[in-house]
Design goal:
This protein is α+β, with helices and mostly antiparallel strands. The protein has one domain. Helices cover about 55% and strands about 15% of the residues. The chain is built from three helices and three strands, in the order H-E-H-H-E-E.
């Protein structure tokens, strides 16, 4: 009988843990085998490209920035625990 009572409690704890971890996930740019130095250069290039028109709306700059990184081989993914080849980009876009 003791194990039946424990199952709902265990399920509740597991569900709460998943929700809690899900709230901590952030977006990263991932390119297999990329280094922080490589991303720093690519990020600076794309940031400059996206900022070339200061009068543009923020959505246009965000789209330009993301297209630039995608063209360089990065993919945007969400992680709670990112791998080594995952990098944070412009955080105001998250």
């Amino acid at each position: 009988m003791g194990t039946r009572r424990g199952r709902p409690f265990t399920a509740l704890i597991a569900a709460c843990s998943i929700v809690a971890l899900g709230g901590c996930a952030k977006f990263y740019w991932v390119k297999p085998a990329s280094t922080p130095e490589q991303f720093s250069r690519d990020n600076a290039k794309c940031k400059a490209e996206a900022s070339s028109s200061p009068a543009a709306a923020p959505d246009v700059e965000q789209l330009t920035y993301r297209r630039c990184l995608r063209a360089l081989g990065y993919e945007r993914q969400e992680f709670a625990f990112p791998p080594a080849d995952a990098h944070r980009g412009l955080e105001e876009f998250d």
